[in-house]
Amino acid sequence: MNLALQSPQPKPPSTQRVEERRACESAGLAARALSIAEDATVQAFAVDGAVVLRGLLTPAELEVLRQGIDANLAAPSPRALVASQPEDPGFFIEDFCNWTDNEHYRRLIFDSALAAVASRLMQSRTARLYHDHMLTKEPGTRQPTPWHQDQPYYNVDGTQNVSFWIPVDPVSRAATLEFAAGTHRGPWLMPRTFMTNEARWFPAGTLAELPDIEAGRHAQPPTHRILGWALEPGDAVAFHMLTLHASGGVEPGRRRRVFSVRFLGDDMRHAPRPWKTSPDFPGLAEELPADAPMEHPLFPLLWGAQP
């Protein structure tokens, strides 16, 4: 007798049960997002364009992310860039857009409260994944990350956006990401290459040049209020894509592995450029018209529903 044929087969969960489970999961993520991004934090993000989020990741989520970064470092994608000079005693590497291939990144982005927190900070009904970005500075790296805005390098327009900068190693105040408070309100500033200071994107003269933030830091009174926080693994900073930011190198003996993930809100639109953006999305301009919402499989909707 073939018992396997006579054994009752498990029934697939009903649509109602699946929807109930998803609703329960969403409620849990919403509650966690509310505890992380309280009303005062949301208001600070609107005013300053950058906030610190203590304990953004749980220990389990942090371990998933650490595994994802290590897997990424072991096998960088063709999009990876070395961002330090050959004579630098350390090593700075960046990599982009790996969530489709890196299961650890995907689990973190899709299963954590990141999208729900993004929705609150952006004051947006929805939160759509834009892209991921890994940045690792090995011990003793001297290469700084100069002052810049992110959005001029991108192919999007709009105001509802947020980037999370999440270290899996302790980050000192000296090595952390710093922000010039309030600069997310504009204007857009000329994007330049980090190591050679070339204007490879917008034509010269079309955008204002970057002010001397470092000189302004020591002026009386300072020209900008500079924000920055020492971080422990699981902490993060969240910032608007137009907020001016920069960081220094890292101390000898201290490694700085960071994962950045970026979200788009309700008002963000596709802005094709006649040049290669950073990161680049080859072929997207043929599939998504200019000024269209970012409704494309490359940018999944992770929180809320389309109106």
Shape: globular
One letter per element, helices H and strands E, the order comes to HHHEHEEHHEEEEEHEEEEEHE
Residue share in helices?
25-40%
Quote the average pLDDT: 92
Q: What portion of residues belong to β-strands?
A: 15-25%
**Beginning-to-end CA distance, first to last residue:** 56 Å
Total helical segments: 8
Low-pLDDT runs of 5+ residues are 1-8
Largest sheet: 8 strands, antiparallel
Rg is 21 Å
How would you characterize the overall build of this protein?
There is one protein chain. This protein is an alpha+beta fold and 307 residues long. Helices cover 26% and strands 21% of the residues. The protein has 8 helices and 14 strands. It has helices spanning 3-6, 15-36, 39-48, 59-74, 103-111, 114-122, 213-217, 284-287; strands spanning 50-53, 81-82, 92-96, 127-137, 145-148, 156-157, 161-167, 177-180, 226-228, 236-239, 245-247, 256-264, 269-270, 301-303. The strands form 3 sheets. Strands 1, 2, 3, 4, 7, 10, 12 and 14 form an 8-stranded antiparallel sheet that branches. A 4-stranded antiparallel sheet has the order 5-11-8-9, with no helix packed on it. A two-stranded antiparallel ribbon has the order 6-13. Helix 4 packs antiparallel against helix 5. The radius of gyration is 21 Å and the shape is globular. The chain starts with a helix and ends with a strand. Mean pLDDT is 92; it is low at 1-8.
